[in-house]
Every structure is written in structure tokens, then in C-alpha cells.
Specification:
This protein is of the alpha/beta class. The chain has helices spanning 8-21, 46-56, 70-81, 108-117, 122-137, 145-161; strands spanning 30-37, 61-68, 89-95, 100-107. Helices cover 45% and strands 17% of the residues.
Length: 178
């Protein structure tokens, strides 16, 4: 007499239990499109933006990152936030579950101006604002002081792990880490 095979439901349960108990060491997957709609000089590469975004990911994500000039940045900020000026970063979350999906817009001239006035390396500031945008997609905010402190501490940890100085220090070094 042949032994009956184990039911598929039993095998499935064993597989799911094994997956649930496995340590989560795998990095979340990132699908990211980088669009350059700016003629600014010294923009980071798509690979750099993706590297920075990956460090802030908590779940698998699909992100469109658009680098814009001041006119488009101002138009988007006015249309979506009612503010008639270009801001450094705008974030448009689309979904949070089962994976993250959204758009991030970074205004290159604003970033360059801020970096110069705050004595920051340009790449460090782009890295910081990329991380900042990804955290917004994850639902972090800085409108309430306690939330702002949490978001800033997470940003600082990630940016420093990337090899850049604390983005919230008053006088950052102009060293250009890659």
C-alpha cells in the first residue's frame, strides 16, 4: 500500500511558518524612476538617488523621483499646498500597504541655494532631502514637535550612515562624500 502524500495545506502552512519565523535581513525592494526636469549643474546620478532612498525604506517601494527647476517647483507647491513659492521637497504618497508607492519632487535650485546658505555639501543636502521625502512616503511628518523630533532623529541616523554629517547641525562641513 502506498503512503498518501501530505496535504498541500499542511505543506503551505509549514512554509508560511518558516517564512514568518525567518529573520528579516533582506532589504526592501525598490523600483525607482528618476526624472530630470532641471538644467541645474552637479545633480546627483540616478544611482546615488536610489542608494539614498534605499537606506530609508522600510517596505518594498515604487517611487518616482522628479528633479525640477524653480518654475515647476513653485507651480506644484501652489497647486498642492497653496503656497506661491518653490520648496525644497514635495511628497505625494499614493499607497502605504501592502507596499509603498508615491512620488517625490525635489527642486534643484532651492536645494542648491539652501546648501550654500547653510554651508552644506550639495550632495549631502540632496541625500538628506531624498531620505526626508521617503520618510514622508512612510507617513512620517514634522508638523507636530514630537513627530518632528522623531523624523529628524531617523533622518540624522540614516544620513550619517550614508557618510554625511548630521543635516541638522548649524555648521556642516562642506566635505563631499559619495
Amino acid at each position: 500500500m502506498q503512503a498518501e502524500p501530505e496535504p498541500k495545506t499542511s505543506t503551505t502552512k509549514k512554509t508560511n511558518v518558516a517564512k514568518a519565523q525567518a529573520p528579516q535581513s533582506a532589504m526592501p525592494k525598490l523600483s525607482m524612476q528618476v526624472q530630470y526636469a532641471s538644467d541645474a549643474e552637479n545633480l546627483p546620478t540616478a544611482a546615488e538617488f536610489k542608494k539614498w532612498a534605499r537606506k530609508a525604506l522600510r517596505v518594498d517601494s515604487e517611487i518616482a523621483l522628479r528633479i525640477v527647476d524653480e518654475a515647476e517647483g513653485r507651480e506644484l507647491n501652489k497647486a498642492y499646498r497653496g503656497k506661491d513659492y518653490a520648496t525644497n521637497v514635495l511628497t505625494f504618497p499614493l499607497t502605504e500597504e501592502p507596499y509603498l508607492m508615491g512620488d517625490i519632487v525635489i527642486c534643484a535650485p532651492v536645494v542648491a541655494s539652501e546648501a550654500e546658505s547653510q554651508n552644506k555639501a550639495l550632495k549631502a543636502h540632496f541625500a538628506h532631502l531624498t531620505v526626508h521625502g521617503v520618510l514622508h512616503l512612510h507617513g512620517y511628518d514634522h508638523e507636530i514637535e514630537a513627530q518632528a523630533e522623531l523624523m529628524e532623529s531617523i533622518e540624522t541616523e540614516i544620513v550619517m550612515k550614508l557618510g554625511y554629517p548630521d543635516p541638522y547641525l548649524a555648521d556642516n562641513s562642506l566635505s563631499e562624500n559619495t
